[in-house]
Every structure is written in C-alpha cells, then in structure tokens.
C-alpha cells in the first residue's frame, strides 16, 4: 500500500488540518464497538420513507433517467420546493433563479458559506450548534464567533446579538441560525426572529437560516426569518428529517437571485448536480407529500414526552424541545462540566450512547445530547439503563 511521500506530508490544505473530524460521528463510531450498547447518538430517523416517495425514485431508475440534470436540479423538483415553501411558510421563491437543489442540507451549508465568506470574515453562531458549522467556516478562511446561549434558554436574543456585533466590529459577515435547533430542539419565537432580523439588517449582514427541522415542531408554528428579511436570507432546508430521507441526500437552498447565481457556481464546482432518483423522490415528496410529516411528528412528540418525563423522574434537567428530536440534558453535578467523561462512562458502564455537549461548541459544555429518533423499545430500555447508571453514581 502506498505511503505519502515525506516531502508532501505538510503540503495539504492547512486550514483542513486545523479542524478535526465530526465529533458526533467520531463518538458514534467509537461507541458502535461496545457490545449491547443502545445508540442515541445520530440524528437518524428510524422511520421509513413514504411509499409514494420510494416509488418515484424507482420509476426514475426504470425510466432510464440516468443523465445529468440541470445543475440547479430538475425544474419539477425546484417547482416542488417553491410549492412547499409557499404552502407551508408563505415564502415565494422563483424556481428558475432563486432555488438550488443540493446534495443534502450539508452541501447547501457548505456552498452557502464558501459563496459569501472571504479570509478574515467572521460568522456569529449561537452555541450549542450543529458541529459541522465550525470547521466549514474555518476551511473557508473565516472565523467563528461562538455565542454561548446556555444562560438564555438556548436562544440568541436581539440584545445579545447587538452587543456581540458591537464588540466584534465590521468584520462580521453573517449570522448562522439553526431552529428548531440541533442539539437542543429549541424553536425561536416569532417575536425573537423579528428582533434578530432588525439587528441583522441594521448591521448589513447575511443570515444563513438552517431550517432542516422546520416540519418537526410540537405545539408551535415555525416562523422563518425569510418572512422578514428575504433580501438578506440564505434559506437552507431538505428532506432528511421531514421524510426520513437521510440516505437520499436531498436538500436545497433559496435566496435572492443575485446570490443564488454565485452559489450555483460553487454548487456546480462541488457536485455538478444531485442524483436523478433522489431528485425524483424529493419532487414527489414536495408536490404530493406535504402531509407525510404529520404522522412522524406525532410519534416524535410522544417520544419527547416520554424522555422528558423520564429525565424529570431521574432529577436531570433538560431544555424542553419544541422541535427536532433531541434531548439536551444537563449531566449530574458529580461530573461537573466534564460531559466527555460522562458520555464515555455512560456508554461503557451503562450501555447507552449519547454525544458530549461540548461537541456542539462552548454553550454545550456540561450537557449530553440524546436522539429520540429511535424505536419506542430502544428508548424505554435506554431510559431504564440511564436510570440505573445514575443511581449507581449515588
């Protein structure tokens, strides 16, 4: 097997060398070797893709739909994205000039950041936040400004954002919001979104709105910041969570036409275009499956209530999730803020896998994230094991 030439060992992208692998994936991989462990690490729906959506992908293959699609995605898919955004959130994006179909929301995030960022720029990210954001900003040559929201119910307030922007100066280019949030499941109220939008506009910034969990909310209505400042918003979403299509890798971004023209170039350089069967499935979901998430949402809400009740009984506090499918739980006081040790002890001794909160930035220190996108039986057993583990620590 070839060994890299010694004179080339330091000749790779140094920004890439500055970042580590995904903390979530790293933990999940390590824990997967522990016999009998129940994995509550990944945000992976345990449900099946709706039959009509699967059939659309199958038909695409059978119809020999095997050639390059338009780089921004098929028009039928982009019309589906337009249809969904208009029907669900009242947002009007032109399928021809203001929408790009991407390889998952992950590619949409990457393409967006690489489109707007220059070396020396800063991106404000409320933490805890999805761990992918930090390395992508770094690789783009920019700097993250992490804002710890653990003392404000995991919400970035307009007042706090104003203070941070005054401190950081004119080098801030964008604010990145994810709501309902990963890892907390917290949804932002409309009044807070409107306040943040005013601050963002006053400071002449972009906002990247990662709204991948917008269809999974409980007792609240999702309100996109694109309703307030569409001229500044890069809207990111996809079908991984709403239709359990993680493996299809079907996402999209929407925004003003001038920005989308630039983002299309970056998207094309990275992936050329998404796969045709995935696009056919995505189009079917968006044109004819807007009610598909309703049943899933009811299941997740039931699981959320079960996990919340279990945590209350164990004396563990958590942010009450109003969306997504995560429980972000404060670790026992005996561990201090050492969430890494707690997570590894729980995995090795209690046979339950969770992600250390510090993987999601400074605001996550002292917490652990459990995904309740798992079967009822696995969740019941995991809570039983967690209770026994907590009791053993006295």
Automatic annotation (TrEMBL):
Superkingdom, natural source: Bacteria
Describe the location of the Aminotransferase class I/classII large domain by residue ranges: 37-386
Mind telling me which residue stretches traverse the membrane in this protein? Answer: none
Keyword set includes Transferase:
yes
Q: Which Pfam families match?
A: Aminotran_1_2
- Annotated GO biological process: amino acid metabolic process
Which InterPro entries does the UniProt record give? Aminotransferase_I/II_large, AspAT/PAT-like, NHTrfase_class1_PyrdxlP-BS, PyrdxlP-dep_Trfase, PyrdxlP-dep_Trfase_major, PyrdxlP-dep_Trfase_small
The molecule here is called Aminotransferase
Organism this protein belongs to: Secundilactobacillus pentosiphilus
